[in-house]
Amino acid sequence: MNIVIIGAGYVGTTTGIAFANQGHQVVLIDTDEDKINKLHQSILPFYEDGMEELLKQLIANGNLSFSTCLEEKIDQAQILFITVGTPSLPNGVANLSTVEHVARQIGRFIKDYKMVVVKSTVPVGTGDKIKEIIKDELAKRKQEIPFDQLSNPEFLREGKALYDAMHPDRIVIGCDTEKARLMMKALYKEEDAKILFTTIKDAEMIKYASNAFLATKISFINELARLCEKTGSNVIEVAKGMGLDQRIGPQFLQAGIGYGGSCFPKDTQALLALAKEKEQPLHILQAVTKVNQTQVEWFMEKVKKALGNLSEKRIALLGLTFKPQTDDIRESSSLKMIDYLLKHNAMIKAYDPKGMDHVKKIYPSITYTNTPYKAAVEADAVLLVTEWKEIIELDWNRVKPLLSQPYVFDGRNALDASTMIQMGYIYEGIGHRPSS
Ligand code: UDX
Predict the structure, then answer these.
(1) Where in the chain is the domain with CATH 3.40.50.720?
(2) Pocket of ligand 1 contains residue 239 by CB under 6 Å
(3) What phi and psi values does residue 118 have, to the nearest 5 degrees?
(4) Which residue's CA is the closest to the ligand 1 atom numbered 16?
(5) What is the pLDDT of residue 436?
(6) Domain topology for 2-198
(7) Which residue is closest in CA terms to ligand 1's atom 27?
(8) N or C: which end of the chain has fewer CB within 10 A?
């Protein structure tokens, strides 16, 4: 099929690569010339393991191309995907201005039937708005060109985006005509069991509800971790025991310093804003965001208490990205941590395998090192922020003599507490208090 994808961000680029890899003809559009020029040269605007090699192949075999001009490319598409960003406005509401602009352009440029599929995460009811905008533009041109509007939310995880795009556990498609339904079935060459057809409004809500529910699991276990420290329980064992119940499941019960990234914080705020607009409060989700907003501070208070105070203390921050296998630092807990440490006059040396350049732009004055060992030199404490494999698997016997004080605060419960204690570290994790 011929597909045009509008918006070469994380979702658009990954979706384009996955469809091109299935043999579809894909054109990826973005107004950012620099981004498009780089994509022409097989350079991704973000880091995702293995994706650049595939990008190179797909460009070479002609399945994937790029452009900054939607008007030039729109005729060749049967399906148009909208994958532009929907960042939060200050009140939490999703900013739909780019989505609406794209819908206007579609209404201005189409000459024959198109399927317009929204993959951007948008509040419930946006599908109707888009339909109206396109109709409105067609009416201005005095045209009655048929089109279908659909919702097809994405559930990609950064760091595993390619795998998720190629092996989805479900494909949710909101559409209201048989023609669109059949075309989407032909597009996704997946078994029927994986495809759920719904109304557009249901598909829009499924996306928000899924992210809100995963965020709920994380905040639940994080809050419970705080209680476990008071009761002397171990949240790692508690999560294991809970996860064995198939109705609960083990995933997203990893206690830590809170969720970050481009989705959970933004989407939970957007759902809360929608709830407010509809005068139907979501009390649980309010608590979920509150726990997340306070989790770093709760952790840092522990660090401060253990070290006495933080003024002039040398802190090694290991990991800066919001999770491993990505260079994304959006809403990363590391940023809240840096703010806290700077406010308390600590001296920071930071290391991350992929995220340092981005953090440098926000905090140019802290020290960045090109190895984790250098960050540890004369540090009063090591803070493990992101559970990169190379950080977990450091030679901790080599780290210890570099330190001024043998404190390790493990913000992800990624290290084995008893091994660390045997090595002579003073170890603190999340939700468990190792005794020896
Ligand atoms: C998420 C959803 O998983 C994905 O389906 C959706 O399309 C986009 O949002 P992503 O933001 O890439 O994906 O990251 P994810 O792996 O879900 O992790 C989000 C945050 O939660 C990270 O900061 C991670 O460290 C944290 N997390 C995750 C926990 O603290 N504990 C857990 O048990 C799981």
Answers:
(1) 2-198, 234-428
(2) no
(3) -95, 120
(4) 157
(5) 52
(6) Rossmann fold (3.40.50)
(7) 259
(8) C
- Degrees, nearest 5: CA angle 226-230-233: 85
Q: For a ligand 1 pocket test, name from 14, 264, 334 the mutation site with the most ligand atoms within 8 angstroms of its C-beta.
A: 264
What's the pLDDT tens digit per position in 82-126?
Answer: 999 999 899 989 999 999 999 999 999 999 999 999 999 999 999
**What fold is seen in the domain 234-428?**
Rossmann fold (3.40.50)
Residue 240 sits at φ, ψ, to 5 deg, of -60, -45
Ligand 1 near 236 CB (within 6 A) = no
Tokens (6 digits) for 53: 């090699």
| Number of residues assigned to the chain | 436
Phi, psi dihedral angles at 405 (to 5 degrees): -135, 145
Ligand 1 pocket residue status of 46, Cβ below 6 Å: no
Count CA atoms within 13 Å of residue 215 on its CB side: 29
Token pair in block for residue 405: 């004080």
Any ligand 1 atom below 6 A from CB of 431:
no
To test the ligand 1 pocket, which listed residue (83, 163, 169, 214) has its Cβ within 8 A of the most ligand atoms? 214
C-alpha of residue 157 to centroid of ligand 1, in Å: 7
Active site residues: 263
Q: Is 218 in the pocket of ligand 1 (CB under 6 A)?
A: yes
- Per residue of the chain (436 residues), give pLDDT as tens: 999 999 999 999 999 999 999 999 999 999 999 999 999 999 999 999 899 999 999 999 999 999 999 999 999 999 999 999 999 899 989 999 999 999 999 999 999 999 999 999 999 999 999 999 999 999 999 999 999 999 999 999 999 999 999 899 999 999 999 999 999 999 998 777 799 999 999 999 999 999 999 999 999 999 999 999 999 999 999 999 999 999 999 999 999 999 999 999 999 999 999 999 999 999 999 999 999 999 999 999 999 999 999 999 999 999 999 999 999 999 999 999 999 999 999 999 999 999 999 999 999 999 999 999 999 999 999 999 999 999 999 999 999 999 999 999 999 999 999 999 999 999 999 999 876 5
Cβ of residue 299 lying under 6 Å from some atom of ligand 1: no
Cα torsion 115, 121, 125, 129: sign: negative
